[in-house]
Amino acid sequence: MRISLAPMEGLVDGPLRAALTQIGGVNWCVTEFVRVTSTLLPPRYFKRVAPEWANNWRTPAGVLLKLQLLGSDPTCLADNAARAANLGAPGIDLNFGCPAKTVNRHRGGAVLLQEPELLYDIVREVRRTVPATIPVTAKMRLGYENTDLALDCARALADGGAAELVVHARTKLDGYKPPAHWHWIARIKEAVQVPVVANGEIWTVEDFMQCRKESGCEDFMLGRGLVARPDLARQIRAAVAGEPADTVEWTNMLPVIAAFHQGLIGQGAPTYAPGRLKQWLGYLRRSYPEATALFREIRTQHQLNALPA
Ligand SMILES: Cc1cc2nc3c(=O)[nH]c(=O)nc-3n(C[C@H](O)[C@H](O)[C@H](O)COP(=O)(O)O)c2cc1C
User: Fold this and answer.
1) Residue nearest to atom 11 of ligand 1 (CA)
2) 6: Cβ below 6 Å to ligand 1?
3) How far is Cα 146 from Cα 50, in angstroms, rounded to an integer?
4) Bridge-partner residues for 35, per DSSP?
5) Is residue 45 located within the same domain as residue 180?
6) For residue 287, what are the domain limits?
7) Which atom of ligand 1 lies closest to the CA of 201?
């Protein structure tokens, strides 16, 4: 079984990847999407979204980071993928799931699920251009407005050369509204020969068990659930192995949170680091009551040089 940390733009960046992979149980991460329109992006752009490039594309805990691209122009995506590969990216993931209006209006993300032929062209061109040793993967939703083309899209991506598909089991219209339709992942799994990674709405070990049952998958991608409960991957592994629960106490979370905050200092405006800390605490409140107290303590602070003891 493999477990990955989902790409989440505006939420899962270098410092949060460092924190979550330090807690453990994660096999690989994916960057926030890099949007490709019509230009070859400068190397600094890739380095910014993947600061781990300087550490051989690994988080400080040693977990590999793939780079995600989003766009609709096969040639331009392929050129940018080749550049990222040149910078050492160990894998290129293609985003066909973003529901954002501005992104979809510019023919990026989930809107492309209406055009399976284009999905095929994109993956084929990226696969053809990137060195054969570097896997090209794709992340899809079940469709744009409905699931009518879900299997066609999955087949197009696999036929185009995707080594693996991550399926977020909702349409773009579903947004992030529960439930995730895990049984659909099983249908996709049957339709393609490549490994399928199940994603969507896994917040607890029970959710995981149910998702595994309905999807029939052996590989999983955790997003908000892992941000809210950083020991979720460890808990899942312990449950699967039939071992006692492997949880991380709040006192052991504190140094990880402090290091996360420290990693953000110096980035952006002075309000940036405390803002991001509050964002993560907002998620952590779901599983740690202590996070609420800390959130309250720092709520009114716009600048924060050290975490309160
Ligand atoms: C704030 C946010 C940002 C996201 N950004 C990306 C992204 O950059 N690329 C991507 O493929 N998916 C993105 N997603 C989707 C997640 O990777 C994942 O598919 C989705 O959250 C469902 O998984 P979950 O229920 O475990 O969170 C984003 C989701 C959220 C909530």
Assistant:
1) 95
2) yes
3) 33
4) 70
5) yes
6) 250-299
7) 25
Per-residue pLDDT tens listing for the chain (309 residues): 999 999 999 999 999 999 999 999 999 999 999 999 999 999 999 999 999 999 999 999 999 999 999 999 999 999 999 999 999 999 999 999 999 898 888 889 999 999 999 999 999 999 999 999 999 999 999 999 999 999 999 999 999 999 999 999 999 999 999 999 999 999 999 999 999 999 999 999 999 999 999 999 999 999 999 999 999 999 999 999 999 988 999 999 999 999 999 999 888 888 899 899 999 999 999 999 999 999 888 877 655 555 654
Q: Does 258 lie in the same domain as 225?
A: no
Token pair for residue 62? 């040693």
Residue 7 Cβ < 6 Å to ligand 1: yes
Domain endpoint, select from 241, 264, 283: 241
Among 49, 113, 168, name the best residue to mutate to test ligand 1's pocket (greatest count of ligand atoms within 8 A of Cβ): 168
In angstroms, the Cα distances linking 309 to 120, 254, 283 are: 53, 9, 20
12 closest CA partner among 32, 26, 35: 32
Distance 57 CA to ligand 1 centre (A): 21
* Residue that is written with structure tokens 């993956």 in the block: 123
Cα 265 to middle of ligand 1, angstroms: 25
**85 plus 157 within the same structural domain:** yes
175 and 63 in a common domain: yes
Last residue of a domain, one of 241, 270, 290: 241
User: Can you tell me the distance from the alpha carbon of 168 to that of 96, in angstroms, rounded to the nearest whole number?
Assistant: 10
Rounded distance from Cα 308 to ligand 1 centre (Å):
31
The number of distinct structural domains making up the chain is 2
